[in-house]
Amino acid sequence: MRNLDKYKGVIPAFYACYDDEGEISPERVRALTAYFVQKGVKGVYVNGSSGECIYQSVQDKKTVLENVMAEAQGKLTVIAHVACNNTKDSQELAAHAESLGVDAIAAIPPIYFRLPEYAIAAYWNDISAAAPNTDFVIYNIPQLAGTALTLPLFKEMRNNPRVIGVKNSSMPVQDIQMFVQEAGDDYIVFNGPDEQFISGLVIGAQGGIGGTYGAMPELYLKLYELVQQNDMKRACELQHAVDAIIYTLCSGHGNMYAVIKAVLQRNEGLKLGGVRKPLPACIASDKPIIEKAAALIQETKEKFL
User: Fold this and answer.
1) Active site residue: 139, 187, 213, 257, which one?
2) Is the N or the C terminus of the chain less surrounded, counting Cβ atoms within 10 Å?
């Protein structure tokens, strides 16, 4: 059996970090990486949805990952999402990620065209072949990608020895259960939807990768600890409190990641820039929402930590 321990735990999805002109800021990427090291999370998931991946160029993604790896210095498990909407660019990013020594690469299926499952499998295997010495994680997010990971497709992908599991961001917790039952202990399934973190862990996920973890990593670390201790009453109370924060983060005019970055600047002194168009930026009317979310995070920490 493979040793998957380095993937078990809380893995925040890394945010895109821009300078004041809206370009990738190496300095801010390094500052966010150092923040995650200091918070004690298991690792980071780089250049995924939270990293605004579909709005980044190949070079943008390389710059982000290079600076994450330079700052992390082996202190974090690093999973690099490398999927582009064509195989060639995805393979270039996969080879680049392996050259930097990441722990794993990951990929959503190709979007827009509804490809048959054999074409999706070929796409993923071609990406994996460009990083032949690196673990591969399937990213299942059907509500955005338009394609769901089925059990037959998952079975086909397990013929690739580099495939170690699934980042499951579909909403039904049952999907996590099915993937765990289908694959067994030699594979890992990550819970994706932050609102059901403890539910995913209880049903069989061994770790979580999420877009709101970065705004409040201590709370997710506590949730993970409570589930490991089987203190489910306290875990449920904290999950409900975290969900209230998530709903607030999602309630602005600005995109959730714009709100999160504003919250991080307020609570942690991290300046990460805004979001890249066409994602909507925060506007003046979002200030009370940002203040409310920031205060809720602080209050929840005081109550549960």
Assistant:
1) 139
2) N
Burial 195-221 (b: 16+ CB within 10 A, else e): bbbbbbbbbbbbbbbbbbbbbbbbbbb
What's the CA gap between 109 and 121, in Å, rounded?
9
**pLDDT tens-place string over residues 122-166:** 999 999 999 999 999 999 998 888 889 999 999 999 999 999 999
Three-class secondary structure of residue 67 per DSSP: helix
Active-site hit among 42, 61, 62, 167 = 167
Contact 72, 37 (CB under 8 A): yes
Strand 10-12 with 163-168, pairing: unpaired
Going from N- to C-terminal start, the domains of the chain cover: 5-230
User: Which candidate, 125, 141, 136, places its Cα nearest to that of 97?
Assistant: 136
User: Is 247 labeled as catalytic in the residue annotation?
Assistant: no
Catalytic residue at 139? yes
CA separation for the pair 73, 189 (Å, rounded): 26
Rounded to 5 degrees, what are φ and ψ at 204? 140, -10
Query: At residue 256, what is the residue type?
Result: M
Phi, psi of 68 (to 5 degrees): -60, -50
CB 205 within 8 A of CB 251: no
Query: Per the structure block, which two tokens stand in for 127?
Result: 């990406």
Predicted structure pTM score: 0.97
Residue 68's nearest CA partner among 214, 254, 205, 278 is: 214
Size of the chain, expressed as the number of residues it contains? 305
Torsion of CA 201, 203, 204, 205, to 10 degrees: -40
CA–CA distance, 28 with 187 (Å, rounded to integer): 34
> Could you read off the pLDDT of 87-136 as tens digits, one per residue?
999 999 999 999 999 999 999 999 888 899 999 999 999 999 999 999 99
Q: What is the 3-state secondary structure (H, E, C) of 163-207?
A: EEEEEECCCCHHHHHHHHHHHCCCCEEEECCHHHHHHHHHHCCCE
